[in-house]
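Example record

Each entry pairs one chain with its bound ligand, (R)-mevalonate.
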Amino acid sequence: MTKSHMSKFYKLSITDRIIELEKLGWLSPKDANKLKLGHHIITNEVADKMIENTLGIFGLPLSVAPNFIINDRECIVPIVVEEPSVVAGLSQAALMARATNGFKANLSESFLTGQIHIINVKNIESTIINLKKECSNLIEKANEIHPRLNARGGGVRNIEFKILNLRDKTSVISVHMLVDTCDAMGANLVNTICESMAPTLEKISGGKAILKILSNFLDHSVCSSTVIYNTDSLGNSSISGEEVRDLIILANQIATFDVHRAVTSNKGIMNGIDAVAIATGNDWRAIEASIHAYAARNGQYSTLTKWSSSSNGNLKGEIKIPIKPGIVGGSLLLNPAASLGLKLCGIETAKQLAEMMASVGIAQNFAALRALVTDGIQKGHMRLHARSVASLVKTPNHFFDDVVKRLVKSDEIKQAIKEQLKTKESVNIPELVNTIDMNYEN
Ligand code: MEV
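Structure tokens for the complex follow.
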């Protein structure tokens, strides 16, 4: 099995990282070459066919977070994100979890719900009884719509009928078709099923189907991931492992009750999940909508994770997210970068991708909470800010790390930013750099 553990990977140049991934078997020679030449990016012509009024291509960094073990499988995680610290946090969280065999994730069922809303039904209760009687015929009919989906082992598995009582005292029947879409996210498949089934449902109910579309709330595709961190590994020179464990548990409890904190905590979780979604060509807006709705499922928006002390005093983290990514169809057909992202993580099924995303979510939450309860988030950010400063003034590569180190150590960057923020709305980087001693010759 190819090892995902890579030490000092971040120190390599981009080309050397690609070479290393090829050497380790994470990239085929063909894909490595594509990456080196930038041929994984869609062309203007393709972009013009994807959406309307295209002007060009918008870039974001493509990266990988190494060190992951998910369900005993070594894996590296493709990441597309503009925010510094996300990749570093994930890699570190995955590295620390290796001591306890990584993440155990599980997606036990995965159905996409198609909804048909029927209005103007005369007798709702008796109509529901009639619809229920017809249920197996309806499933059979629905499964004739996509014979290829059935051939792949998917199809409509169940139909649920719900009554919605609206403010104006009228009632609506909401028909839920639960569809196994196999390795596709399945939005188009399910929308076609909904539209095709609407006339039959109208006939049985005597009503009118006004909405015929999937629901992005994936409550029939809830994926979990669990991780244990050795308490001994959590501390640093100024704080013990036990203290960090207890502070993480406390911070998590705060996020359970405080909606302002819960949103920030979940935003951190989504830093990782969205980054994988984009890297693998998945619809991150759908993923966001589903997960935030789930976070509020009990009537109050709350955190998606639960941190506790395990029976032997270690730190245990759990996450549950409703998610149904695809590994076939959609933008994957058109976007070579998304196919490359999928190949990088070496997954073979959509289930594995969901389990990877849930594991990334809990890893990201761990990284954020550990940073917050120990050094605070700004220390790491200062370092990354120093990197941006050094890169903006075009510091030559051979001086780069040294300049960054000195910028961070000198504390001047912090002071200079503070000074600038006192007087200006935003930071002027070249001016800021002028205020810092950059004589790296000595
Ligand atoms: C920043 O993008 C994410 C964090 O705010 C998450 C958190 O506070 O848990 C650091």
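Residues 350-373 form the longest helix (24 residues).
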